[in-house]
Amino acid sequence: MILTVEAGFDTLLPLTFPIESKSNSERLARQGMVLQSKISNPAVFLGFMATVAAHRAIVLGYHKDLAPSEVNHDDLITDSDYKKAKHEAVVAVRQAIQHCQKPDQYLIDACFALVSTATVVGNFDEARVHLNGIAQMISSVGTTSEESMSWLPVTNVKVSSAMLSQPCLTIPWTREDIPIEILQRISPHPETEQSRLGTGFTQISELSDQIKDLLSSHRDICNICELSVANPGGLSAIENRILYRKATELEYDYVAYPYQSVAFRHNSVKESTLSALEAVVRLAGLGLLSTTPHTILPSSGAGRSITHHQKRAVERWLREKDDACGVAELSVITWALFIFIQCSELQPEQAVFAKVLAQTTRDLWLQSWTDVETTMHSFLYIPRLQATIWHNIWDDTHRVNYRKLAARP
Predict the structure, then answer these.
(1) Which overall architecture, per CATH, does domain 5-163 show?
(2) Domain range list for the chain
(3) Residue-wise pLDDT tens digits, 216-247
(4) CA gap 33, 39 in Å, rounded
(5) Is the pTM of this model over 0.90?
(6) Which positions ≥6 away from 89 have C-beta within 8 Å?
(7) Residues 18/384, Cβ–Cβ less than 8 Å
(8) Burial of 147 (0-12, 13-18, 19+ CB in 10 A)
């Protein structure tokens, strides 16, 4: 099995940080930490390698479709290296539990790797079991490493987003507002298109006040990401920390808010029932957070799960939408579809979303990318990260689907 030590640490979680700059010294430091973990505790190292093997199998296509199903997704990975790495990691953790009189930092870190591995392949029930076990161990240990306390909340929200269920753990820090000086730094000039970010949501009365508040907070995250790409020096350490925490808090709130308010009805299994439009917008917010600042591979278990939820939401909206659907609603659906197409890159649902996008843009008389981008600026949009990707989506949609619709009698 050919797995680099560098990859072992960098892919511990099933996500990457596309706007964070990493120096060679930082990379060497991480390599040293992984080598030290191999020396200090085999379970931790083998857990790292299991996550790397899962990530490698996804990247190289050594798997069947990892969309949500009742099947154990380990059986859908066709890479023998993954099966061996996962088995050795599980055995090592079990042995560590048997020989450890009291949970320690090594055991917690090894269990985190099992959570990450399960999340990559899409075994979310397994991941949640491990998460609950980690929470119990942390309460027993009392103090944990800074790395563990940063992995816990982001892993928690990624598993909850994939399952689209109430998070099992709470945010482990005290929430704080973004400092005024940083808000001033990230705020776009009033005369730029970027200053209109989020204004389109205010025109949609069907959206709840709760989600409108979350979308307003999401605007700040978009502005931080835009600033990071525009600034050659990137973000400062403090700004990176704020971005990480605010993105984690926001994803947590997107998943949790329907369960925390009496304003929303719940069905017989205590699942929140949102309106069709709000369900699409909520999943668009979650989808945006799976591309920036954390990146989830579309073909991974987590990626296939979010796409599964997005497709169901779009299908429901299509069934329930009013024939006299207004411009504001069509516009926000169009924005959501760009996100859904990006999240489902090279997956079966991509073509489904593209057909709906062709229809909504035709209904809105959006006939050029300039028209589209003007509309996108009314919602949540990060030009320096998304313009090229979304422009290509528009070109493909216009070339294949839009013209087919236009040719109909």
Answers:
(1) Alpha Horseshoe (1.25)
(2) 5-163, 180-407
(3) 999 999 999 999 998 877 788 899 999 999 99
(4) 10
(5) no
(6) 43, 46, 47, 49, 50, 110, 113, 114, 117
(7) no
(8) middle
